[in-house]
Amino acid sequence: MIHAHAAREARAPLTPHTIETGPLRPFEVELAVTHCGICHSDIHLIDDDWHISRYPLVPGHEVVGTVQACGPAVTDVRVGQRVGVGWQSGSCLACEWCLRGDEMCCAQEEATCVGRPGGFADRLRVDSRFAHPLPDALASEHAAPLLCAGITVYAPLAAGVQPGMRVGVVGIGGLGHLALQFARAMGAEVTAFSTTPGKAAEAERFGAHHFVVSSDARQMEQAKGTLDYVLSTVTAPLDWPVWLDVLRQRDRRARRHAGDAGFRGPYRRAPAGRGRAAAGCERGAGEGPGEPGALPDRAGRLTARYPAPNGRAGAGSSGPGPQTERACRRMKAMRC
Ligand SMILES: [Zn+2]
Ligand SMILES: [Zn+2]
Predict the structure, then answer these.
(1) For the chain, how many helices (H) and strands (E)?
(2) Which one of the ligands is nearest to 289 CA?
(3) Nearest ligand to the CA atom of 104
(4) Taking Cα atoms as reference points, which of 127, 135, 141 lies closest to residue 76?
(5) Above 50 in pLDDT, residue 312?
(6) Which numbered ligand comes closest to the C-alpha of 96?
């Protein structure tokens, strides 16, 4: 019996809900949930904004827990092990996409809390191959948000950012906070963009070298042609020509984490001209067993070696410094 919290209908509050369970499937594990983040996608699911929700709906896809029981075919985790589960919790593991590590493109992709109960519960059942062992250095409350919000910004940054690049992060909310830290730890010179001038101090604390008020036309004019890479974390429609002008001339790209008006859908590419490229993805690329499993591992090794004062991944905020350089070398060695 699983004790959970569920929405009974669209936009309903969560109320206690119990779920009967049978025997574990061959590759399934049962976790005792200790932590679960809350993501805006949970709200979208509760409210049926995407028209895919089934009720009662138990949200939660940033789950940390301890393995309590394993199905007969499970070999990659063991009872007592602390693991994390993100948005994706299943795929065929045999198709072209799965075999090359792009499990999020699999036609049989399963999401942790779509059509099945998620992590707002005392127990979670999931395919063991999507339950990622967490390094000891990473506290559970820090690991949980990395499993969706973290991978969403980490994957596009890891795919395109090299040490020394000038990286812009648009939107300084939860995703932006994580993106600033990752970009900084990857050795980038980081610029935070926000419409809220009061966020300058927190952006700097999270690793930004520069802060631009994006609603200030003069500051945006000064920012033209200064960046190698822009990651947008906002859900509001953006004036893309303005953001493409912020990029330098050639071989550069803008990435964003989720669809919005005018630039929607996974991997849709927009003609940008003059060597600039824009690409979008509905969520972090590489959300399969390899990528989110690698993220907490990498973040854990970084936090273990280079602990930040606030306990988050990444180095401090005063100049690139030897910590960041070492972190970058280490991440490079790991082929991030
Ligand atoms: Zn999420
Ligand atoms: Zn597949």
Answers:
(1) 10, 16
(2) 2
(3) 2
(4) 127
(5) no
(6) 2
Query: What share of the chain has pLDDT > 70, as a percent?
Result: 74
Quick check: helix, strand or coil at residue 219? helix
CATH of the domain spanning 2-133, picked from 1.20.58.480, 3.90.180.10, 3.30.565.10, 2.40.40.20:
3.90.180.10
Name the token pair of 20. Answer: 């009967």
Averaged pLDDT of the chain? 81
Q: How far is the CA of 127 from the centre of ligand 2 (A)?
A: 14
Q: Which ligand is nearest to the Cα of residue 45, counting in written order? A: 1
Q: How far does residue 84's CA lie from ligand 1's centre (Å)?
A: 13
Dist. CA 48 → ligand 1 center (Å) = 15
230-286 pLDDT, tens digit each = 999 988 888 888 888 899 876 455 655 444 434 443 334 444 444 555 555 444 433
Kindly give the distance from the C-alpha atom of residue 139 to the centroid of ligand 2, in angstroms, as a whole number: 31
Q: Residue 176 Cα, ligand 1 centroid: separation in angstroms? A: 14
Which ligand ends up closest to the CA of 108?
Answer: 2
> Left (φ > 0), alpha (ψ -120 to 50) or beta: where does 171 sit?
left
Task: Say which range, 91-95, 117-121, 278-282, 314-318, has the weakest mean pLDDT.
Answer: 314-318
Please report which ligand is nearest the Cα atom of 98.
Answer: 2
Tokens read off for 301: 């090794």
Average pLDDT for 110-139:
96
Q: Where in the chain is the domain with CATH 3.40.50.720?
A: 147-336
Q: Tell me: domain 147-336, CATH 3.40.50.720, correct?
A: yes
List Cα–Cα distances, 154 to 86, 203, 221, 231, 237, in angstroms: 14, 17, 28, 10, 22
